[in-house]
Design a protein that fits this description.
90 residues; mainly alpha; 0% strand
Amino acid sequence: MTYVENLWLFFVVLFGIIILPGMDMLFVLASALTGGRRTGLSAAVGMSAGGILHSLYGALGVGMLAAWMPSLFLPLLVVGAAYMVWIGIG
């Protein structure tokens, strides 16, 4: 396959992943259907805020680990890379 064919295949698969609703989307949809527009919007804002805080805490934790104990950063990096390989294989 050429690069362009691989790129189109990537876009098709990515579109399929994006279009499928996850648990967050189902929660927001259920909230909107049972409680109306305001409840659905509150659920969406809550999910977004939770995702932002989760990412922020993760980044702060890794940053503090790297700053306070630099010797533990390399093992964390290796374990993270191994985890990504395991996900890729699975």
